[in-house]
């Protein structure tokens, strides 16, 4: 009985983590630099990967140019399903997934400034750790984040959530 209780507890933790990740991904808005995978069940010619360009559009067979920018994967899935259902397939089974998120950038007084892959749930502190941590000259309590939308910088706490395309700037201290 005790093993069953432990097993159920572990299963509950994994379910909660999966649910939180799924919810974060379901709200994720697609943008330039994301790589998405479109799968249509039993239709190899309609299953493919795309790198979303700066135009925010993809060229999809039979449907032409589709606007991707600012849509969730679920919204794009519905658009493709409806488009294929109208004239081409009977009851198409479509899935859209983000294969790789667009980059975030960490600049300034960090060991390895540059671009890093965004991950849902990424904080300023974790992004700085990806960039090798603070240098000796870094101001550790004043980190600027320039959000991709809107394009303005603001001072953020190390626990603040980072969005895709954000630029993190670690300034140098004077002392």
UniProtKB/TrEMBL annotation:
Keywords: Signal. Residues 103-145 form the Soluble ligand binding domain. Residues 1-24 form the signal peptide. InterPro entries: Poly_export, Poly_export_N, Soluble_ligand-bd. Residues 24-98 form the Polysaccharide export protein N-terminal domain. This is Capsular polysaccharide biosynthesis protein. It comes from Agarivorans gilvus.
